[in-house]
Amino acid sequence: MTPPERDPLSLPNPSPQFGRYAPSPSGRLHVGNLRTALVAWLTARSSDRGFLVRIEDLDPDRSHTAVADQQLEDLASIGLDWDTEPIHQSERDNAYSGALARLDAAGLVYPCWCTRAELASAAPHDPQRPYAGKCRGLNDAERAERQARANRPPSLRVSLGDVEVSWNDLLMGSQSGVSSDPVVRRADGVFAYHLAVVVDDAAQNVDQVVRGDDLSDSVPTQAALYDALGLPRPTWGHVPLVVESDGTRLAKRERSVTLARWGDDGTALAKLGASLGLCGPEDSDVTAADLRTNFHLASVPREPWVLDRPF
Ligand code: GLU
Known about the structure:
It contains ten helices and twelve strands. By secondary structure, the chain is an alpha/beta fold.
């Protein structure tokens, strides 16, 4: 399939279209990440889409080339394939600058000097902390005063307003939420997640975003960002996370449940497939293509998968 790179801000979207998996290379993938990647691959392949992997290495302090290489190796080792060379977000500043310029020309970009402490105190009970708008709508004098007081460069936010967004999630059904003003460029000049993911998915013709359900809260803001950029929204599907038997979420940290600890003996794909009801956990000969034959989105469990639960 032809690599889909194109100008993200041009319309309309040519086919073919893609699903994707887009890990941040901050730590080795755990089995929950691999299971989500498998569902993304199965959903894309069984809907006649291409499939991409993208390296989301925006944050220089938390991204490691060796980790990205290991992630690709782990994805390939459970039988996933992708149709084009993975792109790296760390090499995409031109695309993000272009999108930022478009938002700026529409009068939507504003500087924000809020500190972490200010953000936390504005929304102490909300872990997602929708931006309360302290730096939105400041006049020139107020900006100069904030700048003098902060004595450091501002981050940049996009004014999206509090837009009520509803979407039909491929896995979770009817959902809704309210957008917030995202940071699109951090104070240190690094472009931020919401802008990069929207620009890249549009640039790569990704019209089907299947990912972990810890990211479903970001849909309203990303939907509003697609709208602000004049880009068509994709379809979203959020896969329930994997939890340990005591209910804690897996995280990409040391001692997490990675392939090295869980399925290096070639049993990982069967165990992941079994968790999706697609094969037995002992079917050590099963291939990703076999799972694809049996796959139906409707049969993906809607509950978190408890690891170590006996099959
Ligand atoms: N890079 C994000 C992560 O590793 C995923 C972003 C997305 O799928 O939208 O959690």
